[in-house]
Amino acid sequence: MNGLLPVGVAAVVGACVGSFLTVCVARWPEGRSVVSPRSRCLNCKSRLAWWENVPVLGFLLVRGRCRRCGERLSAMYPVVEVAVALIWAGMTSQWGVHPEAVRGSLFLTLLLGIALTDARQYVIPDEFSVGGCVIGVALAALPGGPSLADAVLGAGLGFGLLWVVAKLGRLVFGKDAMGGGDIKMMAMVGAFLGPAGVLFTLFSGALLGSAIFGPIAFRTARLVPFGIFLAIGAAVAYGWGDPLIAWYLALLGMN
Questions:
Q1: Can you tell me the distance from the alpha carbon of 85 to that of 56, in angstroms, rounded to the nearest whole number?
Q2: Most buried pick, 49, 129, 247, 252, via CB within 10 A?
Q3: Is the pLDDT of residue 218 over 60?
Q4: pLDDT tens digits for 61-87?
Q5: CA nearest to 188, candidates 227, 144, 131
Q6: Are the CB atoms for 230 and 186 separated by under 8 Å?
Q7: For 152-203, how does the pLDDT look when each residue is reduced to its tens digit (9 = 90+)?
Q8: How buried is 160 (Cβ within 10 angstroms: 0-12 exposed, 13-18 middle, 19+ buried)?
């Protein structure tokens, strides 16, 4: 029972963080404050009661509709709240009451926020990328993650590599091959994962993005939300990067 208590507390905290994340995803890309005004129905503009903002439960109590006008509420809210609750509970289940549980939870939450904003509006707010980079470097002082030197080096490598790719794209194709949001996002990834994590994230993200969106983008000149694939690659790098790298090196006979 004692082992379940921290996991349960983490799930509740995660649901609250997820609720705040939905506000960030909706407002930051538009340059709006996440503090005010209070949450309201997008259709009739009526303010939500405090209990309607309770993660997951508030959505269920109003049956997914505004109490005033009956407009259907976005399912993104409870889905993200549950997802972040599972992230925080999962990290606590794996690490226990340990700084790495907090570091991993924050990192995966930031990645989810980045993926959502990039998918919805083709933008990665600085609050996620630059703010996340600062958090990653600060948390490097805690046990369990990369050293402070690795965090700083990783942030510089992540930013520098994608900056070079963007400039080469401008030189060769006459347009940026990489958005500024992606560049700053990789600085954040490097701050959390270090240099090796940056390389793994770029490789896996590029591989996944090329396989899924490459043919579509080539034929239609459609914008590709590359941040989604970088976020997936970074999550894989955090969870399974070391064993996957070891397996690949063994496959090549280099381990």
A1: 10
A2: 129
A3: no
A4: 999 999 889 889 899 999 999 999 999
A5: 131
A6: yes
A7: 999 999 999 999 988 887 788 776 667 789 999 999 999 999 999 999 999 9
A8: middle
Task: Return the closest-CA partner of residue 201 out of 225, 157, 236.
Answer: 236
Burial 219-242 (b: 16+ CB within 10 A, else e): eeeeebbbbbbbbbbbbbbbeebe
The pTM score is 0.91
In the predicted model, is pLDDT for residue 50 greater than 90? no
CA distances 102 to 78, 122, 148, 239, Å, are 22, 28, 17, 14
Please give the Cα distance from 120 to 127 (Å, whole number). Answer: 16
pLDDT at 254: 64
Peptide bond into 37 cis (omega under 30): yes
Task: Point out which residues pair with 40 in neighbouring strands.
Answer: 47
CA distances from 96 to 8, 81, 101 (A): 12, 21, 7
Dist. CA 62–CA 234, nearest whole Å: 36
Phi, psi of 40, deg, nearest 5: -150, 165
Q: Is the dihedral of CA 62, 37, 77, 10 positive or negative?
A: negative
Q: Domain locations in the chain? A: 1-97, 114-255
Residues present in the chain in total: 255
